[in-house]
Amino acid sequence: MNINGRTRPIAILGNPLGHSLSPLMHNYLFQAAGLNNVYVPLEVKEKDLESAVIGLWSLGFIGANVTIPYKEWIMEYLVDISEEAKLIGAVNTLIRSDEGFRGDNTDGKGFLNSLLLEKDWQPQAKRAVILGAGGSARAVCTALALKGTKEIVLVNRSLPKAEDIISNIAARIGVKARAMLWEDQGLQAAVSNADIIINTTPLGMEPKINVAPPLNTEWLDRGQLVVDLIYNPLKTKLLEEASQRGCEVLNGLGMLIHQGVLSFKLWTGIEPPLEGLRDLLEKSLKTNY
Ligand code: NAP
User: Fold this and answer.
1) What percentage of residues in the chain have a pLDDT greater than 70?
2) How many Cβ atoms sit within 10 Å of the Cβ of residue 234?
3) Of 2.30.40.10, 3.40.50.720, 3.40.50.1860, 3.40.50.10860, which CATH number belongs to 8-105+257-288?
4) Is 86 tagged catalytic?
5) What are the pocket residues of ligand 1 if the criterion is a CB atom closer than 6 Å to any ligand atom?
6) pLDDT tens figures, 238-266
């Protein structure tokens, strides 16, 4: 990497950032695209978030990613926020403007792009079951609802968070949606009728790889697509069992890549060449985690 007087920086703000793959991914893509940018991880304390945003702008950063725990809190320090980010209630990308940073959220669209590009799967008129009701469930639910999904069921261990997503997102977009507890009698029918089942909980993530969401995988069948947003391990217990049932399966590495590609395009206006990226990230997951 050649850093010189014309190098323009981009950051990721979050805490902790030790396991983030984004610096590796974006620095690889800047080099592959022949751009004079550098991407740096900046761990920020909660009390310093506002001054960090002001500082990034003063220092000429052309953009940033934002990750846990700041995707919601950062919104009050931005000059404008995209409609999709407002619906999701979170921002993962900052884009420099003359007045300050604008905010966008590429998580939902990145998720849809991974389904389209890796599985040729489109949400129109499909039925979806989303496991979990946290930040990534909000992004996935919004993206599915905006693209014409016919019905969405959100399953969570507490109903208020799932109901909040439904009232704030699904109802505003106008999609048919309902919330359920894991022990709901209607869950079997919802899962059996679904075209896609998406795990947005951390259950099954390294190091607890023998754990899975409390879902009876005997309800799954061929013809269904089962997606896990987890990418470490690449094949979770849920995906392993879904494969055995004859389902198509997809891990979260594609979502990570495609949300990153969309952020990259917002900063640079360029579609980055992706050759070699997936191998690089998979190798890094094997050696560094
Ligand atoms: P989050 O906001 O903390 O939400 C986690 C959800 O999982 C919550 O609904 C929570 O339920 C549920 N949950 C957690 N532990 C549980 C348990 N023991 N039993 C049942 N439910 C449980 O997290 P997030 O930001 O959405 O991230 C979730 C996962 O997605 C993580 O593994 C993350 O790495 C992954 N992710 C991947 C990508 C990607 O690019 N591939 C992007 C974002 C996130 P309650 O509401 O009841 O607490």
Assistant:
1) 99
2) 15
3) 3.40.50.10860
4) no
5) 107, 132-137, 156-158, 161, 200-203, 205, 229-231, 252, 255-256, 259
6) 999 999 999 999 999 999 999 999 999 99
